[in-house]
Write a structure and sequence with these properties.
It is built from nine helices and 13 strands. With 258 residues, it is an alpha/beta fold. Strands 3, 4, 5, 6, 9, 10, 11, 12 and 13 form a nine-stranded mixed beta sheet that branches. The chain has a two-stranded antiparallel ribbon with strand order 1-2. Helix 2 links the parallel strand 3 (46-50) and strand 4. It is globular, with a radius of gyration of 17 Å.
Length: 258
């Protein structure tokens, strides 16, 4: 990996930091924090983060769930190196012994996946933040950023297949996607994950959803549920709603216990 300029950014009100590219490649933000909130409060199992970048979603889970551990899987050598730098930050010392990092192709065949740490029936919860943009969307001029954000028609199917393989028999799988990928999402989960809970994420109360959060349980026969939406901003300003603020800052999961 050649030298790239980086920043060290604080999350969860300073409870952990992330080493990220200053420009040119994927920088984590609200999406990663929303994805992490799909994991239940009190989760104490082994998490797999598919397409982990430098580790934002995983560290957000570990910051909230003090007994969980996480394995990060990322295909970009640049981002794997930044994940290792993130793990080594002194501000993350309280999390580091619960994190391991792997260079891995999520879409590879089973034997190659297993060699990179994606072993069958291993993980209690899998999370994924796959590339969002269709190949004909406007591409970023930066190759790393374009690679991180472009999906083809097989992406969700392949990532869902991998998640089903590496999940334990009662494991969960959570993804964050654009609403227009709902059809592919349902096809990818079909026969693999049931009991799906889909939460639309709306910028404001009367605006269309820009993201969907979905969680399914391996082998479940429970029916699909569409929950009330998560509203990010109150009024016309940029301030987060009370619920969104709590979720983004790791104070509660998306579905806290009643």
């Amino acid at each position: 990996m050649g030298h790239i300029a980086t920043t060290i950014d604080s999350f969860h009100r300073g409870r952990f930091v992330l080493v990220q590219p200053k420009t040119g490649a994927h920088r984590a933000g609200v999406d990663a924090l929303l994805l992490s909130a799909c994991v239940a409060d009190g989760f104490d199992g082994h998490l797999a983060d598919l397409g982990s970048g430098s580790g934002a979603a995983s560290l957000a889970v570990l910051s909230r769930c003090e007994k969980a551990r996480a394995s990060l899987f990322e295909i970009s050598e640049t981002m794997v190196e930044l994940a290792r730098q993130t793990k080594a930050q002194s501000n993350n010392a309280h999390l580091a012994d619960r994190v391991d990092i792997h260079l891995a192709d999520i879409t590879a065949n089973g034997m190659k996946r297993a060699e990179s740490g994606l072993s069958p029936n291993t993980f209690d919860w899998v999370i994924a933040n796959p590339p969002f943009n269709e190949a004909d969307d406007r591409r970023s001029p930066h190759s790393e950023r374009a690679f991180a954000h472009v999906m083809d028609g097989k992406t969700i199917e392949l990532w869902s297949r991998t998640a089903a393989s590496v999940c334990k028999s009662d494991g969960h799988f959570s993804m964050i996607l654009r609403p227009q990928s709902l059809g592919e999402l349902l096809a990818g989960f079909m026969g693999r994950f049931g009991g799906m809970r889909i939460t639309p994420v709306q910028p404001r109360l009367n605006e269309d959803a820009t993201r969907i959060l979905v969680t399914g349980k391996k082998g479940s026969k429970q029916k699909l549920q569409i929950t009330p939406p998560l509203i990010l901003h109150a009024g016309t300003g940029r301030d987060f709603t009370e619920r969104a603020d709590a979720i983004i800052n790791g104070l509660q999961s998306l579905d806290p216990p009643s």
